[in-house]
Specification:
237 residues; alpha/beta; Rossmann fold; 10 helices
Length: 237
């Protein structure tokens, strides 16, 4: 195991995955990791209890996404950001991006906003429910990229995410080792919501098997979507 308290060792560890890490980015991520552990004393920001695991399971995972973002992406919506993953690490690693952190829990967004202000990151909080906000003209089909690492199934994630994405943009979902396309129903939902057939990329980070699912937005999302959350859950696309 590498030493996350050492910049040189951490940068070398990230380079194994073709991820560049500057001294400033390392210091910002280290400060964010410390803030996460401190905040868990007051609210459920992360179940992870060690700096090493935060770097491995949160930061490395978020950093890997950067490799998949095309140059056309400038605005990113992180749906269900929680304690800021993957949005805040993305803001550290790609400060050229404008990132919106969406969550329905205001206390978690308050934490994200404090971190963003302290570290001077281009990330802003947005409080509300995705299925309601994506109906509003100022958010519907306006983002270059929507991303989520939420635990919901693929059909639900697609219905929550794709309405936010402009035509020509992408929706990115991060899933774990037990990804099952039959259960997730990404393909069925993506096509119904104006997306392409999903591109599934399996990969391994720090010994953990993962899957990245990318959907390109190719046409407008029909006006009836997204549906109410309960209906999404009861009747997946």
């Amino acid at each position: 195991m590498w030493d996350p308290y050492d910049f040189t060792a951490t940068a070398a560890f990230f380079r194994q995955y073709d991820i560049a890490l500057t001294q400033l980015q390392y210091e910002q991520l280290a400060a964010y990791a410390a803030a996460m552990l401190e905040e868990t004393q007051y609210q459920n920001i992360t179940a992870i209890q060690s700096i090493e695991e935060i770097w491995l399971r949160h930061f490395l995972d978020a950093a890997y996404v950067v490799r998949f973002l095309p140059d056309s992406v400038h605005t990113v919506l992180d749906i269900g950001t929680g304690g800021g993953i993957p949005g805040l690490p993305l803001a550290i690693l790609r400060p050229d991006l404008d990132i919106i952190l969406l969550d329905s829990e205001e206390r978690k967004l308050d934490f994200c906003e404090r971190v963003a202000k302290t570290l001077q990151l281009p990330a802003k909080p947005l409080h509300g429910r995705a299925e309601e906000l994506s109906k509003l003209p100022e958010y519907r089909q306006t983002f270059d990229c929507a991303i989520s690492r939420a635990v919901a199934n693929g059909s639900m994630l697609s219905e929550l995410g794709l309405p936010f994405v402009r035509i020509g943009g992408i929706f990115c979902a991060l899933k774990g080792e037990h990804y099952d396309p039959t259960v997730e129903r990404f393909a069925e939902a993506a096509v119904a919501l104006g997306g392409s057939m999903p591109e599934v990329t399996p990969y391994t980070l720090g010994g953990n098997a993962k899957h990245m699912i990318l959907v390109h937005k190719v046409q407008d999302t029909p006006a009836q979507y997204p549906r109410r959350f309960a209906k999404m859950k009861r009747q997946p696309l």
